[in-house]
Task: inverse folding
């Protein structure tokens, strides 16, 4: 294994995916690529300052993910892209030659997933690469 793509949105589940990606990279000696996908925004319809706020938040969450990798001695980089999350994740994995994609899943269930869609489910169905889906931690 040479390259692991970890998709993160900064949520608790996304942070668990980051942790799993780092652990997998430590175990295999692979390099990490952290990816954050921002939704496409029409600048003419956005509130003033919204785009820069979203970009600042994206950089902050990726800086935090990179710090985890550095702390574990793992070679890593980060990228922000804009578009449909599942499509951009699959495309980035293909372009980067990722051996595996790590993505979180909040486990919303069948009914919610049917109406809301599921990035992890869509990534799994669109890619030809192995996908590690990290579930949200359950509290008792």
Result:
């Amino acid at each position: 294994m040479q390259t692991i793509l970890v998709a993160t949105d900064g949520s608790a589940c996304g942070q668990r995916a980051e942790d799993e990606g780092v652990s997998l990279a430590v175990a295999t000696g692979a390099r990490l690529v952290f990816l954050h996908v921002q939704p496409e925004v029409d600048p003419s319809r956005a509130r003033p300052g919204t785009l820069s706020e979203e970009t600042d938040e994206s950089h902050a969450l990726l800086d935090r993910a990179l710090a985890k990798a550095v702390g574990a001695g793992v070679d890593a980089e980060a990228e922000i892209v804009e578009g449909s999350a599942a499509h951009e994740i699959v495309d980035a994995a293909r372009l980067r030659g990722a051996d595996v994609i790590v993505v979180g899943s909040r486990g919303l269930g069948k009914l919610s997933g049917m109406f809301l869609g599921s990035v992890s489910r869509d990534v799994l169905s669109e890619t030809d690469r192995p996908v590690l889906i990290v579930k949200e931690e359950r509290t008792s």
Q: What stands out?
A: Confidence is low (pLDDT under 50) at residues 109-117. Residues 18 and 65 are 6 Å apart (CA to CA). Residues 3-135 form a domain with the Rossmann fold fold (CATH 3.40.50.620).
